[in-house]
Write a structure and sequence with these properties.
The complex is a heterotrimer. By secondary structure, chain B is an all-alpha fold. In chain B, about 75% of the residues lie in helices and about 0% in strands. Classes of the chains: A mainly alpha, B mainly alpha, C mainly alpha.
Chain lengths: ~700, ~475, ~120
């Protein structure tokens, strides 16, 4: 660590390795000493590690602004030096990476603190307190990996972080690997983790291909070197290939069509994980990747359009599914996919600043929403706990029935929680209004900027604006639906009547997030465009768009209409216990589709997974065992040998030599049978396979 | 014999003498104190390793050009001696527990290593063949050493029959090459081919037959069929040694012979190697998915890894890439040896009487009962798959780079696709360990624990500082 | 080894070598009278009728004795020429021979100690 340099120059670039060092140190500390520490101490250490990371990020931001946003590369160690491939572990400090560092470590720290309270209760409801420490170890590891991802100076370093956060995601989705969401013993969560991992591997495959092509064509993986040679010799075919392969990686990590299916299942992880990894930070890595690779995307318009369309289609598609969900976290999950679609659409259209702006504000309000949802779920759990171990006066059949299977996250079990959990209610409202894009909340400004860009570039990117506007309308609608169902009307279960508010360790971080969700728009207000000017040091050709009252007006009116309709459907006549969704009747089979996620999982099952399983079974059972072992070895080789022996014995030998040979053949046959029982009969055919190989190789070489 | 001759083979001479003496000394060691034999064998290996390392950086040709001491042989011999030490470390408690503890066990390992080391130093086809037999015969005996167990005997017989069969091909190949070039010395063979004096078809046929013999030793498709049966039947400690040692020796001979004796026909041989590599990766990885027994699964996995290393070989046809291909190959061998010994040590820890405890299902619950062991196993499985932060990833990275540079894009693609497939069965072990309920019984034996613990640490730590290790491997070039 | 002519002779030699035994068997088969009976059709082993299964167990000691014998037999084969030309080979050959004998001696000690020379 170049502390002396820091002292000399007055800037803090030398501190950048601490971004990785602090969370790793926190992790190791908890791993080694955590066994004997109290939960509070463990949580404090982990939060402090994350908090110090945030401090470093702030110092870096200060240093950058003092040096006019110039790129700084900090060399740490030699990494891989073979042939042409020269890679070092170098940290890249520029305005883009610093924005990511600030968002990740800032939101991350708040979630660490929140998790102290959340996990304290969660491990007790699930009855395994030892996992408290493990949670924080994983969480710190995640922060470290995310830092590696955003601070890497080459695609390969980025990939190390990319895989690292994927691993953390896998570990944390399957955190309660032996429970399902209802608290029963089951491997559902583990399956969800596996699904996430495999879907991401498909994406990583694309990313790897992109890296191979990059290295093959440009001879380097270092960002500047790649962009430099790309701008000198723009070969549209190669760059299209690279950017399209990269897009596969983006659809995996950032949950875009068609690889988004893992994200809703990922909600199996504890709620702080959903907030941190699967809403605020990791899933935005794909957006970051596209922005980072902006010089490549700028060169090929067709790919950019594909990116924008994938984002826009995802935004609308996921929003329709969110309308039909009943689980409070599932709604938010599909909403996250939809919002990621907004960001991907934005960066696809070259509106990099709008994408990053929305990334930041979304991190604030979606983390807020998820954590509030966690607070609601825990509140319901507390109510449920209270009833199950009741104080004697709750012996009605309902409560006992609930004890078996009770889903604390199902919105149909809630209602009128405004009364029981007032703090959470107000926090949730702040997040909802931000997400719905109501003036002057943060989401209004960032979403508006994306819509504005879509409108401005409509001739180059036709259709994107309409898809996004429709998605924005649905966003306001499903959030309205959620608010009415959860906080208003009448309690639909006993449990909802006994829900309890969460402690300050959980609500205080939420208030900070709520503050950001309300005022986060200040980052890039029209007129000042602070974020645009900050990022223009790093991304070429960004420009501050003019505020357009038409666009803003239309989207605000749309949002208000959507909320109004949701009030008519869910607010005016609140849902009663057991009542089916009022949308079901007018929409009919369309709503059934929404409820069932348009049967995409089933479709993948039928089109990809089952045929793949069949193929594997076919290869192992039919081809390898039945065909190769049973048929080829036993029938062809063994029977062939026997047949040959018979042929030699009967017509050939009998005719030419006569009975002595016949007798010898019999002996041969019998001893071959004896030998075969001794050696399983297959050594011969193993040798035959060697011989076949020899003949084929020789044949190829000699006849070539 | 002059001093240079003596010096060039010094470690081998010392180890041969040591193992012959060990065989005699062992006769006078009480049956209950065979641990002394193990310690003596390990001491011999350590001494030889010291001698080998002291020769680093030297190049000596001995015995009228029959053998050579160079950076490559020093590196490979060090790795072989390391494998020998690990083989003794995993065997020590295991053979006692299984009741097959005999002094000869250790001597046979030493003899086999002598053959392997000679293989790495050979500079003449006759020496290659002698080395091949010297390393194989002790392995046949070791595979059958549990002679009260029919499966072990069967493994020994099978290995012997097929080994002799493929050995025959090597001799035939040597004969053809001799017929075509009039020599068995690598340098003269290469010179004869380069000047166009040799009959090309005969040389090609001879080289192909020699390739078959080595292909058998490393378990390349379609010469792999013995692998699952023998790996499963042989005592697990022997399997561990075979998986690493025989593979290292086979590949080092393959590299030595093809890089120094046949460089000018590499263009003809490379497509054959590429197809064999592709088939090996596909068959190994696909067949492994269906396995229920961990030894069989690891056998197919070892086939698959042989395929990855062969992939580097396809690249050696390009003279500019020859050195890169060789260093990537031996680096991968190091990664594989370390990971595989760790894995086998854990398999041995779980193995019980009568071959029980070897089903993959038997690993259920290991994550809870033995968290450290399960963590080590996780590291090994990740390393075999090629997921960071493990040595396996770095090894694959170097390999794929060479293959891509050699313009074998389709081969690299197959390599990536098959590693994707392999993730399925390696991750299954992890899933079973952590996510299934079970009460696995394990044996705690200090040397075994040391082996898997140390290998796990090496797998991770070396992956963080691969550059220095790779620099050593890159220095291990043939002269 | 440039010329191909020596190989022509080798080829002719192989062909002749194959022809002679085939011709001998074929001529005998065609010319010989065939009057088979049971006794004629039985395998000739040693003049005594075969009894029981040919797969029987016998003492492995035979093998070990044979192996040990073979080793020392070969030793003599090597040592005779060595002893005869020792003068012209020099001091190096003396040590070489001694090492050879020592290695075989180690084998003998091993076999002895393992009880392989005892017939029990």
């Amino acid at each position: 660590m170049n502390l002396s340099e820091t002292v000399n120059t007055g800037y803090f670039f030398g501190l950048v390795p601490l971004l990785v060092f602090f969370p790793i140190a926190g992790m190791l500390f908890n791993m080694i000493f955590g066994g004997k520490m109290s939960e509070k101490a463990i949580g404090t250490v982990a939060s402090a590690a994350s908090g110090l990371t945030f401090v470093v990020a702030v110092l870096l931001a200060y240093s950058l602004s003092a040096t006019h946003g110039e790129l700084h590369q900090v060399f740490l160690a030699e990494w891989i030096h073979i042939g042409e491939l020269q890679l070092d572990w170098t940290f890249r400090v520029d305005t883009l990476s610093v924005v990511m560092m600030l968002v990740v470590s800032g939101v991350g720290t708040l979630i660490h603190i929140y998790a102290i309270g959340y996990m304290h209760e969660d491990v007790r409801f699930k009855d395994d307190v030892r996992r408290f420490r493990r949670f924080f170890v994983f969480l710190n590891l995640f922060i470290a990996m995310m830092m590696i991802l955003v601070s890497g100076d080459s695609y390969l370093m980025l990939f190390v972080g990319w895989e690292g956060v994927g691993l953390c995601s896998f570990l944390l989705i399957g955190f309660w690997y032996d429970f399902n969401i209802l608290g029963q013993k089951s491997t559902e969560n583990a399956e969800a983790g596996k699904k996430a991992f495999i879907a991401n591997r498909v994406g990583d495959f694309g990313f790897l291909l992109a890296m191979f092509t990059t290295f093959w064509h440009f001879g380097s993986l270092q960002f500047d070197a790649v962009f430099e040679s790309a701008s000198h010799h723009p070969d549209p075919v190669v760059i299209s290939a690279i950017t399209l392969f990269m897009l596969i990686g983006v659809t995996g990590k950032s949950a875009q069509v068609p690889l988004y299916v893992w994200l809703p299942d990922a909600m199996a992880g504890p709620t702080p994980v959903s907030a941190l990894i699967h809403a605020a930070t990791m899933v935005t890595a794909g957006v970051y990747l596209v922005v980072r690779s902006a010089p490549l995307y700028n060169l090929v318009h067709s790919t950019s359009y594909i990116v924008a369309m994938i984002g826009a289609v995802t935004a609308l598609f996921a929003a329709t599914i969110a309308v039909g969900q009943y689980d409070i976290k599932k709604v938010l999950a599909y909403s996250t996919i939809s919002q990621l679609g907004f960001m991907v659409a934005a960066v696809g259209m070259g509106a990099y600043v709008a994408g990053i702006f929305h990334l930041a504000t979304h991190a604030f309000f979606k983390a807020l929403l998820f954590l509030s949802a966690g607070s609601i779920i825990l509140g319901m759990e507390r109510g449920h706990h209270h009833l199950a171990h009741g104080h004697g006066d709750h012996d009605d059949a309902d409560a006992h029935h609930d004890e078996e299977v009770f889903d604390p996250g199902d919105m149909r079990n809630m209602g009128n929680l405004r009364k029981q959990m007032p703090v959470t209610f107000w926090l949730y409202m702040a997040g909802t209004l931000a997400l719905a894009g109501i003036f002057p909340f943060a989401g209004f400004w960032s979403k508006d900027e994306i819509l504005l860009d879509a409108k401005l570039h409509a001739e180059h990117y036709p259709g994107v604006y309409w898809l996004l506007a429709a998605a924005a309308f649905l966003t306001a609608f499903y959030m309205g639906r959620q608010i009415w169902m959860v906080f208003f009307g009448k309690e639909r279960t006993e449990v909802a009547k006994h829900a309890q508010e969460s402690p300050p360790v959980m609500t205080v971080p939420l208030m900070v997030l709520a503050f950001l969700a309300v005022f986060g728009g200040a980052l890039n207000l029209p007129g000042s465009h602070a974020l645009t000017h900050w990022l223009e040091h790093t991304i070429e050709g960004v420009h501050a768009g003019e505020f357009d009252f038409m666009v803003a007006g239309v989207s605000t009116v749309l949002a208000l209409i959507a909320i109004g309709i949701s009030w008519l459907l869910y607010g005016k006549n609140p849902l009663k216990a057991g009542q089916i969704d009022p949308l079901k009747k007018p929409l009919g089979f369309v709503f059934t589709g929404m409820e069932n996620k348009w049967f995409v999982d089933e479709g993948y099952g039928a089109v990809i997974i089952r045929p793949f399983e069949k193929l594997a079974k076919f290869l192992s059972i039919d081809l390898d065992w039945n065909f190769w072992h049973d048929w080829f070895h036993n029938e062809v080789v063994y029977a062939g040998f026997q047949g040959l022996a018979k042929f030699l014995a009967d017509p050939v030998d009998m005719g030419i030599i006569n009975a002595i040979a016949d007798w010898l053949a019999e002996i041969t046959k019998r001893s071959s049978e004896k030998l075969s029982s001794l050696q399983n009969g297959f050594v011969r055919s193993y040798a035959l396979s060697v011989l076949v190989g020899v003949v084929m190789i020789l044949g190829y070489l000699l006849l070539k | 014999m002059n001093q240079a001759d003596f010096y060039s083979l010094l470690p081998i001479i010392v180890l041969t003498t040591w193992s012959a003496l060990l065989l005699i000394v062992d006769l006078f060691i009480d049956d209950k104190k065979k641990g002394i034999t193990a310690v003596l064998a390990a001491a011999g290996l350590a001494l030889t390793m010291g001698l080998t390392l002291s020769q680093t950086g030297q190049t000596v040709i001995g015995f009228n050009g029959m053998v050579i001491l160079d950076g490559f042989s020093t590196f490979v011999n060090t790795l072989l001696l390391f494998s020998g030490l690990m083989a003794i470390s995993v065997a020590y408690g295991y053979i006692k527990r299984r009741g097959i503890e005999r002094g000869e066990y250790y001597s046979l390992i030493l003899f086999s290593i002598v053959g392997m080391m000679l293989m790495a130093q050979a500079r003449d086809l006759i020496v290659v063949f002698i080395a091949l037999e010297m390393l194989s015969i002790p392995l046949y005996v070791l595979a059958a050493i549990d002679n009260s167990n029919a499966k072990s005997e069967e493994a020994g017989i099978k290995y012997f029959l097929l080994g002799a069969f493929s050995g025959g091909f090597v001799v035939y190949g040597v004969a053809l090459v001799f017929g075509a070039t009039g020599s068995t010395a690598f340098a003269e063979i290469a010179a004869s081919i380069a000047t166009g004096n040799a009959e090309t078809l005969l040389v090609l046929a001879g080289a192909a037959l020699i390739l078959v013999g080595f292909g058998f030793k490393v378990g390349a498709v379609p010469f792999q069929m013995w692998t699952p049966d023998v790996y499963e039947g042989a005592p697990t400690s022997v399997t561990a040694f075979m998986a690493a040692g025989a593979k290292i020796a086979g590949f080092s001979a393959l590299m030595r012979v093809f890089a120094t004796a046949f460089p000018d026909i590499a263009v003809d041989i490379a497509p054959v190697l590429a197809v064999i590599a592709a088939l090996t990766m596909i068959v190994g990885n696909v067949a492994a998915i269906a396995q229920k027994n961990i030894k069989r699964m690891l056998a197919y996995s070892s086939i698959a890894h042989a395929g990855y290393i062969l992939m580097a070989f396809a690249a050696f046809a390009n003279p500019a890439l020859r050195d890169d291909a060789i260093s990537a190959g031996i680096f991968y061998l190091v990664a594989y040896a370390i990971t595989s010994f760790g894995t086998w040590a854990i398999v041995i820890s779980l193995e019980k009487e009568d071959g029980k405890g070897l089903a993959i299902e038997d690993y259920a619950g290991l994550g809870r009962t033995k968290p450290l062991m399960a963590a080590a196993m996780t590291i090994f499985m990740l390393s075999l798959t090629g997921i960071p932060p493990t040595l396996g990833l770095i090894g694959k990275l170097y390999l794929f780079r060479v293959v891509v540079e050699a313009q074998f894009m389709w081969l690299a693609l197959i390599g990536i696709l098959t590693s994707l497939i392999s993730a399925y069965y390696y991750l299954r072990v992890i899933v079973i360990m952590y996510m299934k309920e079970g009460e696995p019984e394990t044996v705690s034996e200090s040397w075994l624990t040391f082996t898997w613990g140390a290998m796990a640490v090496l797998t991770v730590v070396l992956s963080l500082i691969p550059a220095s290790l790779f620099a050593w491997a890159s220095g291990a070039l043939m002269k | 080894m440039g010329s191909q002519t020596p190989w022509v002779y080798v080829g002719i030699f192989v062909l002749v070598g194959l022809f002679i035994p085939i011709a001998a068997i074929a001529i005998a088969t065609f010319l010989g009278p065939k009057k088979p009976n049971a006794i004629k059709q039985s395998t000739y082993e040693c003049g005594i009728e075969t009894v029981g299964d040919s797969w029987i167990q016998f003492k492995a000691q035979y093998y070990i004795f044979a192996l040990v014998f073979l080793i020392f037999d070969v030793e003599t084969v090597f040592l005779f020429p060595w002893a005869v030309s020792l003068n012209s080979l020099g001091i190096f050959a003396v040590f070489e021979g001694i090492i050879f004998i020592l290695i075989l001696l180690a084998g003998l000690i091993y076999a002895w100690k393992k009880g392989m020379l005892e017939w029990a």
